[in-house]
Amino acid sequence: QESAVTDVEPVETLASQKREARLRKFKELHLKRNEAHRLNHQEVAEEDKKLKLPSNWEAKKARLQWELEENEKKKECAARGEDYDRVKLLEVTASDAERWQRKKKKKNPDTGFAGYAEAQLRQYQRLTKQIKPNMEAYDKQREESGEDFYPTSNTLIHGTHVPTKEGIDRMVEDVEKQIEKRSKYSRRRAYNDDADIDYINERNAKFNQKAERFYGKYTAEIKQNLERGTAV
């Protein structure tokens, strides 16, 4: 009987060890599952944050970083009393200079007025190149806006932005420059005494000329029918 009890004790000890090993492994799997869940949630949150950003956010961020570095280099050169352009040229290799020169030659020159869409695009590109970002105002607005700084379809921000006095002054100055430049390029058109008078003022006459230029060939028959009195 004592030998039988002695044989049972090792069996129970072995079963207890197996049970503890299974529980330990189950606990490890449980911890790994929680860690995987946490990492997955973190990646989903990061991906959702990236999706809310503009499509060209990375390019804009790189551009702003480059401009900040350029400004820092300019300040350092100014503090040392050096010309930034000369210092920058010293860092350019001959191969880079040749590549930039070839790239510059490939660019199409301005061929003048080709259409209102092209002129508007050139003006937009010219105006955007003149914009210099104010990173301090950018960070301040981001802190004040909070989550609304990256708006979604459910964000209502219309009418909440108040422009600064400096921004309004820049806009007024730019509009005045555009008006001044436009006045220099305007020229007197030849007046035709025999042309039909189908306008009430100069502005209406210019509008009619544009409409005739783009849609005249489509409305010529209708106009002739109206003049003959045979229009249906």
UniProtKB/TrEMBL annotation:
Taxonomic lineage: Eukaryota, Metazoa, Chordata, Craniata, Vertebrata
Keyword hit for Cell inner membrane: no
Domain of life: Eukaryota
Biological process annotations from GO: mRNA splicing, via spliceosome
Annotated GO CC locations: catalytic step 2 spliceosome; post-mRNA release spliceosomal complex; Prp19 complex
Protein name: Pre-mRNA-splicing factor SYF2
Matches recorded under PANTHER family: GCIP-INTERACTING PROTEIN P29, PRE-MRNA-SPLICING FACTOR SYF2
Function: Involved in pre-mRNA splicing as component of the spliceosome.
UniProt-annotated stretches for the region Disordered: 140-160
Entry-linked InterPro entries: mRNA_splic_SYF2
Compartments (UniProt record): Nucleus
UniProt similarity note: Belongs to the SYF2 family.
UniProt keywords, alphabetically: mRNA processing, mRNA splicing, Nucleus, Spliceosome
Subunit structure: May be part of a spliceosome complex.
A Pfam family matched in the record: SYF2
Major localization listed first in the record, in broad terms: nucleus
